Amino acid sequence: MKFEKPLSGLKVLEMGQLIAGPFTTRMLAEFGAEVIKVEPPGKGDPIRKWRHIYKGSSLWWKVQSRNKKSITINLKSEEGQRIIKELVRSCDIVVENFRPGVESDYIRTILNHCNGDKETAAKKLGISKTKLWRKLKQ
Q1: Parallel, antiparallel, or unpaired: how do β-strands 93-96 and 11-15 relate?
Q2: Is the pLDDT of residue 131 over 60?
Q3: Are 21 and 29 in contact (CB under 8 A)?
Q4: Rounded to 5 degrees, what are φ and ψ at 55?
Q5: Residues in Cβ contact with 59 at an 8 Å cutoff, skipping those fewer than 6 apart
Q6: What is the tens place of the pLDDT at every residue in 101-117?
Q7: Closest to 111 measured CA to CA, from 130, 90, 79, 89
Q8: Where are the alpha helices (DSSP H) in 17-117?
Q9: What is the pLDDT of residue 26?
Q10: Contact, 17 vs 44, CB < 8 A?
Q11: Distance, CA of 9 to CA of 5 (rounded, Å)
């Protein structure tokens, strides 16, 4: 008998690298969420080559990326930004761990593509509406 996992049917977009964002989405994936990991072209997530390498990949990569789908997107290109906007519309949760300053631009993008609905945007980002608006004013 096959049991459905608690987060089955939940779709997550991960725009994070190394530990924090990927660890969060790994936990969601282990409980059944569909996780789409966005990686930069050419090199991918730096954790792919971090620390102990086994058969061409880091052991950290094998652990942090299990149960996820990976997609390569150049977030700096217009085409890449168009793809992200489409993905955001189809996802229930967006997880990111960009460096300060970069995140504000993507939070604005996500907000704009939730039809300007701050409640929906806050839910997708996993933060309160008050904190969302505080971040956007920075």
Answers
A1: parallel
A2: no
A3: no
A4: 50, 45
A5: 51, 52, 53
A6: 665 566 666 656 665 55
A7: 89
A8: 20-30, 59-64, 78-90, 102-112
A9: 92
A10: no
A11: 9
* Count of other CB atoms within 10 angstroms of residue 133: 13
Amino acid sitting at position 116: G
Q: Three-class SS of residue 59?
A: helix
- Packing angle, helices 118-125 and 129-137, rounded to 10: 90
Structure confidence by residue, pLDDT tens digits, 24-72: 899 999 999 999 999 989 888 878 788 888 888 888 888 888 899 999 9
The single residue listed with the structure tokens 């997550």 is 12
**Alpha carbon of 95 to those of 2, 114, 136: distances in Å?**
29, 15, 17
* Number of H-type helices and E-type strands within the chain: 6, 6
Residues 6+ apart with CB under 8 A from 5: 31, 32
